[in-house]
C-alpha cells in the first residue's frame, strides 16, 4: 500500500503517542511545522484518506479533542 509523505506522518505521529489523544494543532505541528493554520481541515482530509486506505477503525475520533490510534 502506498502512502504519500504527508499521509505517513499522521499514523507515525499517532503511533509514537499511542494511547494519547492528539489535537489538530499537535498533528499539524508534526506534519507541517508550527506555522500551520489551526483552522485548516487538512488533518480531517488526511484522516479520511487514511481510513479509506487502512480501514475505518484504525483511528478513533474524540469529538472536540482530536484523534488517537485505536489500540483495541
Could you walk me through the main structural features you see in this protein, from its secondary elements to its overall organization?
The chain has one domain (5-69): Arc Repressor Mutant, subunit A, CATH 1.10.10. Helices cover 47% and strands 11% of the residues. It has 3 helices and 2 strands, in the order H-H-H-E-E. Strands 1-2 form a two-stranded antiparallel ribbon. Helix 1 crosses helix 2 (24-32).
Summarize the model shown.
About 45% of the residues lie in helices and about 10% in strands. It has helices at about 5-15, 25-30, 40-55; strands spanning about 60, 65-70.
At the first level of CATH, the class is Mainly Alpha
Determine the fraction of residues in helical runs and give it as a percent range: 40-55%
Report the sheet with the most strands, covering strand number, pairing sense and barrel closure: 2 strands, antiparallel
CATH homologous superfamily caption: Winged helix-like DNA-binding domain superfamily/Winged helix DNA-binding domain
**Any idea how many domains?**
1
Q: Based on DSSP secondary structure assignment, what is the total number of beta strands?
A: 2
The portion of residues forming beta strands comes to 5-15%
Amino acid at each position: 500500500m502506498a502512502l504519500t509523505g504527508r499521509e505517513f506522518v499522521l499514523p507515525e505521529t499517532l503511533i509514537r503517542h499511542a494511547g494519547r489523544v492528539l489535537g489538530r494543532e499537535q498533528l499539524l505541528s508534526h506534519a507541517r511545522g508550527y506555522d500551520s493554520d489551526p483552522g485548516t481541515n487538512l488533518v480531517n482530509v488526511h484522516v479520511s484518506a487514511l481510513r479509506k486506505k487502512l480501514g475505518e477503525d484504525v483511528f478513533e475520533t474524540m469529538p472536540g479533542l482530536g484523534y488517537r490510534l485505536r489500540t483495541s
